[in-house]
Design brief:
Length: 150
C-alpha cells in the first residue's frame, strides 16, 4: 500500500479511494448525511467543470447507482427535470439524492440552484420518488435539507 501512495498521482489515489468507497456503499447503505457528504466530496470536489449527479436508491435507501447526468462549464450546467425523471424510472428508484459541484469552491446555492431543486422535487413527487437532499460540493458541502430548503 505504501508503494501505491509513494508513486501514485493524486488523481490515481482519489480514483482508488472512490473504488473502495463504492464497494462498501453497494453492500451498506449510506447511513448518515456525513457519509453522503464524504462520498460526494470524493466524487465531485476535484471536477474542473460543473457536474450534476444523482444517487439512486431503493426503498431501504440502499444505493442502486450513482449517475452523472449533466455536465456544464466552470460556472453552470443545464439540468432537465425530465431526464432526471427518466433516469429514476430506468433505475426503478424509490429515492434520490441530487448533487452538483461548484468548481469555484463556494457552495452557496444560486437562485438557479434553488429553482431547479424545487422543479426536481415537484417532478419526482409526480412519480412517487422522494428527493432526500440536494447537496452542493465546494470547499464545504451545502445540504438543502440541513438548511430547510427541502
Amino acid at each position: 500500500m505504501s508503494d501505491l501512495i509513494e508513486y501514485a498521482t493524486k488523481e490515481e489515489i482519489i480514483t482508488y479511494a472512490i473504488g473502495l468507497l463504492e464497494v462498501g456503499i453497494k453492500e451498506d447503505p449510506l447511513k448518515s448525511s456525513d457519509d453522503t457528504k464524504k462520498y460526494l466530496k470524493l466524487k465531485l470536489r476535484n471536477e474542473k467543470k460543473e457536474v450534476f449527479s444523482c444517487i439512486f436508491m431503493d426503498n431501504h435507501h440502499k444505493i442502486i447507482c450513482y449517475d452523472e447526468l449533466f455536465y456544464g462549464s466552470i460556472n453552470g450546467a443545464a439540468i432537465y427535470s425530465r431526464e432526471v425523471v427518466r433516469a429514476a424510472l430506468k433505475h426503478n428508484a424509490a429515492a434520490i439524492i441530487c448533487a452538483h459541484n461548484h468548481p469555484s469552491g463556494d457552495c452557496e446555492p444560486s437562485r438557479a440552484d434553488k429553482a431547479i431543486t424545487k422543479r426536481l422535487v415537484d417532478a419526482m413527487d409526480l412519480i412517487d420518488v422522494r428527493v432526500m437532499d440536494h447537496m452542493i460540493v465546494g470547499d464545504e458541502i451545502y445540504s438543502f435539507v440541513e438548511n430547510g430548503l427541502i
